[in-house]
Request: fold
Amino acid sequence: MKPSLGEKIYLLAVYMVLAGAGLLCLLPLVHIASVSSSSLQAVASGHVTFYPIGFSLDAYKQLLEGTPIMRSFWNSMQITVLGVIFSMLFTILAAYPLTRSYFIGRRTYTFGIVFTMLFGGGLIPTYLTIRSLELINTYWSLWLPGLVSVFNLLVLRTFMENIPTEVDEASRIDGCGEWRYLLRIVLPLSTPVLATLALFYGVGYWNAFFNVLMFINEPAKFNLAVLVQQMIQSQTMLSQMNAASGSSEQIMLTPEMVNAAAIIIMVLPMMAVYPFLQRHFVKGVMIGAVKG
Amino acid sequence: MNNWTKSTTSAAACLLAGTMLLAACSNGDQEPSGGASSEGTSTSKPKITVSIYDRGNVPQEMGTIDNNRWTQWLNENGTVEAQYVPIPRGESVQKLNLLFASGDAPDVVSEFATSFRNQLYQQKQILAIDDLIEEHSVHYKQLLENYPELRKAATKPDGSMYEFGRVQQLVGFQALFIRKDWLDQLNLEVPETVDELFEVAKAFAEQDPDGNGQKDTFGIALSGETGAVINTMFRDVDWVLEDGKLVRGWEQQNKASAFKKKIYDAGLVDKDFLADNNGQKAQQDWNSGKTGIFVGRTIDPVNVSQYYEPLKHNVPDAEVIAIKLPSSEYGRFAAGVNNPVQMTTVINRQAKNPEAAMQYIDFMASKEAGEMLRYGVDGSDSEKAANGCPRPKDAAQFSKEVSWNLDFQLLMSQIELEPCAGILSQLDPEKPLEAEFLELVKQNNEANLGADVEYASITHGEHMPTLPDDLSVVQTNVSKIDDIYNKAIVGGTSFTIEQAYTEALELWNRSGGEQLEAFYVQWYDENKDTAFLAKDMWQFVKED
Reply:
């Protein structure tokens, strides 16, 4: 069936809008990548837009030699990988019982969990709590307070509830217990949503910034987000200072290209992980579609 | 089936416990790296905690900001053992607030933000230091005797000193750069008044000074520091003296905005200057040789690569001079200068051993510590240059080993290290670019420190009083006045300066601006004899 003229125009418009939206996301990144691999002269004169001018990898060399970026990278990895494992484990273990109709007090528990979404403790009480638990300066201060995101928990619970009860009944008849049912039936059926949630948690931990800043005091434990922010902030503060204070801060300036290089190193792992998880997203969308 | 469930349950529990244990271990591994600074050099010296800015710029192989070559040197050579508490520079006030609120704040706290230190004073979180200095200090006491202004700046309304600081020579910080080659090309004189400045900018924008046949040049920058310095030319600095009273300078703001509007309407500037809120675009235009008049800085050797090297790279024939600010009907003013007496450090009231904290500060203020932190080890990090001043032996090595320690120098009085500490001795006259920039530094100091120019504000921003909380809110509300005037600058005939003034006044009255004015009037009235004012700053000009 050949598309009619109207459809063609419609498709063209859709493609153009989507391409525009895609470019809006892509171009800033391309610009940063170009800045990070251009010469100082070209960057300082504002010549660099979407491709490197005077290609050089000096910024990356300077970054690796002059800043603790590798250590921060490793720290970020640790926070993210372990954090995702813990968070997923507890999210699953909390979501599954809440889907079982024979679980007594299900509504009470759900209410209790959802209730925590309404307010937070505030910075200083949170800090005092974490300190009295002796979690300051450990990554547990990042993992434990936000171990289970209520939103993610609800998403997972809703997904699990949609698994037909017939599947449950059939497996019970075949002699399947609670654990096996969860591990062999529910989780494999939930891979799309599990992949999505893992990514949510992963992005959250990878970008963890404020908690690291407040709860971690040792620079050796800082992650990438904090390091990159420190580098960029030092520069912004400088330009805001309009003659407000003396020379002291001037020399500390990290060249713009080095900051750009740091940003690239920070976004790269997330970009590398995305394509592998996208398969599951698509699958998740399709399952929904077939079910109608 | 029950048995089976049980065994699976326990297996899963074991797995869970195992993961946690594993994670705890991997975390535990790191403990020594951070904690080593305190245990590594265990002696009988008294221990204190000290805040240190962390900017993420310590090379990995040099350790961390709280445990490195310099902390080790300071702890070995000082009389106390300092344990450093890193404070991320970008969020320093927030982090320090958190530490104070939870009782974890370090004994010695350094912070640039005057408002934060004043807040600590108002909350009675810091110690009065007069007696400590009198009884436990050598170097700092000497410094106070040599520079009585330091006492003036440290004294709070209750009459006691609360802050430690550092003293520097007064030097030009901002410089009004103009393209000399363009002036010559078009047969123009250096502008002496704001009207001449307008004419020169007009010629720069319209008569193709770069000779490329296109009308693609800007007469002057309008965003970033250049915009601020144009305000300075008209003494548009918010609070001005009138008949011995400190009042808001409406008339000055109107005149400065009218001037900006005039150059904007004449098309002499980047039409999108308002989008350039940190002045980066203006700097790029200057560096690519598109702007004729621009405000840069001449305070630090790094300025060479910021404002001069890229320009000379793009336009090898470019010739730059630093000139005096043109005069306006309000007088002739200095562009931005540094703060010669900068307060940086306070002692926490909760400090267990204030004497030890004082000894630490005294050591940090000593010439011995200052020279070591500034130049490193003589012979291996730096060596004497032709002018008799230490200079880095190898620039790359020096920046890896030494130059990131700047935040340890917050108590170092640079003036004691002169003539070697300033930019004049740090630039290498053997290198053509640096030699040329050296000339610019000299021109700029001459232009801004002389007796024929006045400092536009009553004092450096860091010495202005801190507003009480309720007035800070008013201040935030009335700061939108600048937006109103910006709207007028780009508004053409549809929104004039007069209209902006009416609107601004209305906002001012509605937000409680008169309370602000009353505060400043009263503050000046009560403190004009004791406060650290512009005339005190000019005590620190180098005498030839």
